[in-house]
């Protein structure tokens, strides 16, 4: 948690008046630097290296000086969080000058480009009561192993010992893990601020890793193993060890990118357990995820849509009564698939909420904004 506090505090102190060290630099490390035009300058001492490059939304060859210091400057970047790597000899690796984050299916470096006009919603404030985030370990019979989850509880959880709270199960994207929403997404800060402003209901948030194997299975078990673990192990553990409201009306699931698929599969596939579902930058996958010849996704086919998830969409009136919220959002740079899905559902009488983050792509600023908007509508019925 000390790492998280340092990172967020550094971000909140940033301005774009002059080149400044990135918020994620280790103590007293000058580079990388964010420049006034939002480009980023990197500097690495590697006297014996033959060639180095920076990989940040593109490849930037570095130039070596007489002291063996390599430098490169990127093109201007959009606001928010961006993974990057150094590359040499065909191998990409983390910059030794920065904190690392699990993304890209490994630990990678990152920069935060300050200056977003709405950054206040994910910036901590000294007059806002802070919730707690704890790492919990539970045994999974499905996986035959101990697993870790992050659990956020609102500030009042420790003082109102008789209160029970709704639960949001919040999933990361592909190549990330259960730490993503804490370190990259600032989910605790977002909820602290919203709850303090009276815009969101106090709630518990649970973040799991979707990498999952069945006990005794070699190789990755895939989504089905993850779903079984969530339903049979994780949810019962949370309900047994935290003061939850354990009925379906007070349980929601959301996720970003591949985590959106996980959320839709769990939430729409188990209406007996969930009453609210959200996907950030991800579609409702019906049938094959990637269709031969680039065909239209399954939700565009009436027959496939109305028979998916045991016919959950077949009776719009029942769906709209059973589900308090079906929410979907993406960045405006990501295209129109999510909006098209929202419009297709509307044409069948299915209520959903669509949100678009202006000027962002498949990135963490999009997902921070999605969580901010979604949370304000959650558990309000």
* Secondary-structure-derived class: alpha+beta
How far is it from the N-terminal to the C-terminal residue, by CA?
A: 34 Å
Radius of gyration: 22 Å
Can you list the strand order of the major beta sheet? 12-13-15-14-16-17-18-19
Average pLDDT for all residues: 93
Largest sheet: 8 strands, mixed
In the CATH scheme, the class of the largest domain would be Alpha Beta
Poorly predicted runs:
8-16
Number of strands: 19
Give the % helix: 25-40%
Q: Label the overall shape.
A: globular
Proportion of β residues? 25-35%
User: How many structural domains?
Assistant: 2
The string of secondary-structure elements, in order, is HEEEEEEEEEEEEEEHHEHEHEHHEHEH
- CATH topology name of the largest domain, in short, is Rossmann fold
CATH architecture of the largest domain: 3-Layer(aba) Sandwich
CATH superfamily of the largest domain: Alpha/Beta hydrolase fold, catalytic domain
Any overview of this molecule?
There is one protein chain. The chain has 2 domains: 2-115, Immunoglobulins (Immunoglobulin-like); 121-375, Rossmann fold. The two termini are 34 Å apart. The chain is globular and about 70 Å long. The protein contains 9 helices and 19 strands. With 381 residues, the protein is of the alpha+beta class. The longest helix has 19 residues, at 223-241. It has helices spanning 2-13, 180-183, 187-196, 223-241, 258-269, 302-311, 316-322, 337-347, 364-375; strands at residues 20-21, 33-34, 40-45, 53-55, 59-61, 63-64, 69-73, 80-88, 91-93, 101-103, 106-113, 132-140, 145-153, 167-171, 204-208, 251-256, 276-280, 325-331, 353-357. Residues 8-16 have low confidence and may be disordered. Strands 12-13-15-14-16-17-18-19 form an 8-stranded mixed β-sheet.
């Amino acid at each position: 948690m000390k790492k998280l506090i340092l990172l967020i505090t550094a971000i909140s102190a940033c301005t774009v008046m002059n080149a400044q060290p990135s918020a994620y630099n280790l103590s007293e490390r000058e580079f990388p630097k964010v420049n006034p035009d939002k480009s980023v300058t990197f500097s690495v001492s590697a006297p014996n290296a033959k060639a180095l490059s920076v990989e940040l939304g593109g490849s930037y060859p570095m130039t070596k000086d007489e002291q063996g210091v390599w430098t490169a400057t990127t093109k201007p970047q959009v606001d928010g969080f961006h993974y990057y790597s150094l590359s040499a000899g065909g191998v990409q690796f983390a910059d030794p000058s920065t904190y690392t984050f699990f993304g890209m299916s490994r630990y990678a470096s990152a920069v935060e480009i300050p200056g977003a006009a709405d950054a206040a919603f994910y910036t901590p404030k000294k007059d806002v009561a802070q919730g707690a985030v704890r790492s919990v370990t539970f045994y999974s019979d499905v996986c035959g192993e101990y697993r870790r989850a992050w659990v956020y509880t609102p500030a009042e959880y420790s003082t109102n010992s008789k209160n029970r709270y709704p639960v949001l199960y919040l999933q990361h994207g592909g190549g990330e893990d259960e730490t993503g929403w804490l370190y990259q997404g600032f989910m605790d800060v977002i909820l602290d601020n919203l709850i303090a402003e009276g815009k969101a209901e106090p709630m518990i948030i649970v973040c799991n890793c979707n990498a999952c194997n069945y006990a005794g299975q070699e190789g990755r078990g895939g989504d089905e193993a993850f779903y079984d673990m969530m339903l049979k192990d994780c949810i019962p553990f949370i309900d047994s060890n935290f003061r939850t409201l354990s009925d379906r009306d007070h349980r929601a699931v959301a996720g970003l990118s591949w985590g959106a698929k996980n959320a839709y599969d769990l939430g729409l596939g188990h209406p007996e357990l969930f009453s609210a579902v959200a996907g950030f930058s991800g579609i409702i996958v019906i049938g094959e995820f990637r269709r031969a010849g680039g065909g239209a996704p399954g939700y565009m086919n009436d027959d496939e849509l109305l028979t998916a998830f045991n016919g959950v969409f077949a009776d719009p009136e029942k769906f709209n009564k059973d589900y308090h919220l079906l929410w979907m959002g993406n960045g405006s740079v990501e295209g129109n698939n999510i909006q098209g899905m929202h419009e297709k559902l509307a044409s069948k009488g299915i209520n959903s909420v669509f949100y678009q983050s202006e000027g962002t792509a498949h990135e963490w600023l999009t997902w921070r904004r999605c969580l901010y908007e979604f949370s304000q509508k959650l558990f309000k019925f």
